[in-house]
Amino acid sequence: MSAYAQAVDTKTNPLEPTGPLNHTLRVFLIDRNGKIRNIYSSGTLDVRLVLADVRTLLMESNGTNTVAITTPNQ
User: What phi, psi does 27 have (nearest 5°)?
Assistant: First the structure.
């Protein structure tokens, strides 16, 4: 996936139960303008961090200083 610089390899057995591709887990946070704002890997994918980053993006787009997002842990 060249658009996100994501390395993807094809497995030798395309019928592999886990799927035909190998890749590293990466989650992209993309803002409303289509710009990548953060990339999370398996070591940094924490719901608290992602929510904080989403709140920051929402504040930027709304021009406000506070955003109310509730989660089960709040």
Answer: -115, 130
Rounded Cα distance between 44 and 51, Å, is 13
Quick: pLDDT tens for 19-73.
Answer: 888 777 888 999 988 899 999 988 888 999 999 999 999 988 777 554 444 444 4
Give domain limits for the chain: 2-45
Distance CA 61, CA 71 (A): 21
At a CB cut-off of 8 Å and minimum separation 6, what does 12 contact? none
Average pLDDT over every residue of 3-16: 81
What letter does residue 65 receive in the DSSP assignment? S
The full 3-state SS of 35-47, as one line of letters, equals CEEEEEECCCCCH
